[in-house]
Design brief:
Elements (H helix, E strand, L loop, with lengths): L2 H17 L8 E8 L5 H8 L4 E8 L6 H20 L5 E4 L2 H6 L2 H15 L3 E3 H12 L4 E5 L3 H13 L7 E3 L5 H5 L3 H12 L6 E4 L6 H12 L3 E3 H13 L8
Parallel strand pairs: 1-2, 1-3, 3-4, 5-6, 5-7, 7-8
Length: 253
Amino acid sequence: MTRRAAWRYAFLCALRRSSVGEIGTAVKRLGLLLPSSGTVQEVDFYRRVPDGVTVHSARMRLREATEVDELRMLEEYTVPAARDLATIRPDVVVFSCTSAGALRGNAYEQRLCDELAALTKAPVVSTMAAVRDELRRLGVRSVAVVTPYPDALNERVKASLETEGLRVPRVAGLGLLDSLAIAEVEPAAIHEFAVAEFRKAPAEALFLACCTFRAFDARDAIRATLGVPVVTSNQAALAAAMRVLRPAGSAAS
């Protein structure tokens, strides 16, 4: 074999390894549609996806966690980002913004997912819908909510849950608008805040909202402290996406 032929053979083998998993199954591509200022989602997903799943992102411009900016993101930047993401031919797409999913109500959220699915030619998981599904799977009737958001967004998240028949005895937020400031809240601080707020109005479960909040990293410690199920935005979305990719099993349970 000539040197040129050997190089070509090595290149083709490497290319095959990049698109085929260890047991010969095709690698699955998970697409993330996330706000441009989000810095936690990709890290959370990359750390936890199983072998044979890769994560690819497209960003929707968002300056601050306000209703005005999120509405602009939905109206101007979501569809172009989805068109970009479609070029990787994803196997599943996650709409990775909890509050934007709740902003216009659950019916709008479903219409948005249908539109994005048509654009990307892939099933679409909205984070807020994934959270509601996770709570249904747990069989709980009440859930306390902790967020980094201001009150206006907290009310949207609460309404999304109540529409599904869940009782929400307490919603507590940190009042942060800057996504980078949200991402800088340490898991230990999230644990402290969540435990204190939950104990003011206990429920059957706790939901930690926001995709660029490091709640996934705090989840196990909070669950151990409170002794109730704890759902986070990225945990629920990843689990839902894995059910699409691998119906017989899931990740991040």
